[in-house]
UniProtKB/TrEMBL annotation:
It catalyses: (6R)-5,10-methylene-5,6,7,8-tetrahydrofolate + NADP(+) = (6R)-5,10-methenyltetrahydrofolate + NADPH; (6R)-5,10-methenyltetrahydrofolate + H2O = (6R)-10-formyltetrahydrofolate + H(+). NADP(+) binds at G164, R165, S166, I234. InterPro entries: Aminoacid_DH-like_N_sf, NAD(P)-bd_dom_sf, THF_DH/CycHdrlase, THF_DH/CycHdrlase_cat_dom, THF_DH/CycHdrlase_CS, THF_DH/CycHdrlase_NAD-bd_dom. Residues 139-290 form the Tetrahydrofolate dehydrogenase/cyclohydrolase NAD(P)-binding domain. GO terms for molecular function: methenyltetrahydrofolate cyclohydrolase activity; methylenetetrahydrofolate dehydrogenase (NADP+) activity. One of its GO terms (cellular component) is cytosol. This is Bifunctional protein FolD. GO terms for biological process: L-histidine biosynthetic process; methionine biosynthetic process; purine nucleotide biosynthetic process; tetrahydrofolate interconversion. Belongs to the tetrahydrofolate dehydrogenase/cyclohydrolase family. Pathway: One-carbon metabolism; tetrahydrofolate interconversion. Transmembrane segments: none annotated. Keywords: Amino-acid biosynthesis, Histidine biosynthesis, Hydrolase, Methionine biosynthesis, Multifunctional enzyme, NADP, One-carbon metabolism, Oxidoreductase, Purine biosynthesis.
Length: 293
């Protein structure tokens, strides 16, 4: 069984990006610059944005964190997005979700200039990805594609079952696995809460990608012998034996499924660490104008 190590792979990617940034600086080019907008004081959001800013510094990017009050109006937030859209020094922009209820996520997302949309959430980038054009692909699906590629996991002609159809994970994942490319060329079944006989379907998967958001939902009896299993879920469960008082588990019952899988991502240390690496890679691409010339 191959343990697909997202921690190591993400570090490899960060090292590659850092080397490219050093090269750009030596050539007298502009340092890639990521801006993040954080609205309110949500603890998890602060942690996520903090980790992204820290990663920028580690690899030599510039970063700008714009913090706005929970009470900021939609109009004011749209104005901040627009100012960043117009700022030639900033290459990439992310707006940390969730936003307060009085603000429309659709309006804010749609305001981000596609050329700076390094989260890959705008309709322009989702459309381009669907058309198999150069696009910024959302960080989590992109990270999974990169893991499959770097571990040389064959996807062509395989049956890939995706559990979950969210806009940020399941749906883009199904498009990427089905498209004509490598990784890709899989025959894809996208499942969701209305799917009937889920177990019968997952048992036929050569590659099973799980983004359901339910702790240890996928058990060994749902998995074919020799399948590749990618676990996107992250859940905190209490664990008094840990100093922190909790441990992380995924959407897959790792201990039993890993006995059957030919390759599997652990939680933590699988898909999770790849997300920030993908965001940094998208930002480098934005700085080098690789997607939109
Ligand atoms: P989400 O928006 O809650 O979507 C969950 C999906 O699972 C929905 O499409 C839902 O179907 C489907 N579903 C629910 N119950 C089901 C069932 N019994 N059978 C089949 N499908 C079912 O979740 P998400 O944002 O995609 O995230 C999924 C998990 O990944 C979460 O644990 C999240 O924390 C984690 N995550 C991790 C990362 C990372 O960096 N590693 C990034 C993003 C998310 P319906 O559409 O019909 O409701």
């Amino acid at each position: 069984m191959i343990l697909v190590d997202g921690k190591k792979t993400s570090q490899d990617i960060k090292n590659e990006i850092a080397a490219r940034v050093a090269e750009i600086k030596t050539e007298g080019g502009k340092t890639p610059h990521l801006a993040a907008i954080l609205v309110g004081n949500d603890g998890a959001s602060q942690t996520y944005v903090g980790a992204k800013v820290k990663a920028c510094h580690e690899i030599g990017f510039e970063s700008t964190l714009v913090r706005l009050e929970e009470t900021v109006s939609e109009e004011e937030l749209l104005k901040v997005v627009d100012d960043i859209n117009q700022n030639p020094d900033i290459d990439g922009l992310i707006v940390q979700l969730p936003l307060p209820r009085h603000i429309s996520v659709e309006k804010v997302t749609n305001k981000i200039k596609p050329e700076k949309d390094v989260d890959g959430f705008t309709p322009a980038n989702v459309g381009r990805m669907t058309l198999n054009w150069p696009a910024y692909v959302a960080a989590t699906p992109y990270g999974i594609v990169e893991l499959l590629k770097r571990y040389e996991i064959e996807t062509s002609g395989k049956h890939c079952v995706v559990i979950g159809r969210s806009h940020i994970v399941g749906s883009p994942m199904s498009i990427l696995m089905a498209r004509n490319g490598n990784p890709g060329n899989a025959t894809v079944t996208l499942t969701h809460s209305r799917t009937q006989n889920l177990k019968e379907i997952t048992k036929t998967a050569d590659i099973l990608i799980v983004a359901i958001g339910k702790p240890e939902f996928v058990t060994a009896d749902m998995v074919k012998e020799g399948a590749v299993v990618i676990d996107v879920g992250i859940h905190r469960v209490e664990d008094s034996s840990k100093k922190s008082g909790f441990r992380l588990i995924g959407d897959v019952k790792f201990d039993e499924v890993s006995q059957k899988a030919s390759a599997i991502t652990p939680v933590p240390g699988g898909v999770g660490p790849m997300t920030i690496a993908s965001l940094l890679y998208n930002t480098l691409q934005a700085a080098e104008k690789k997607i939109y010339q």
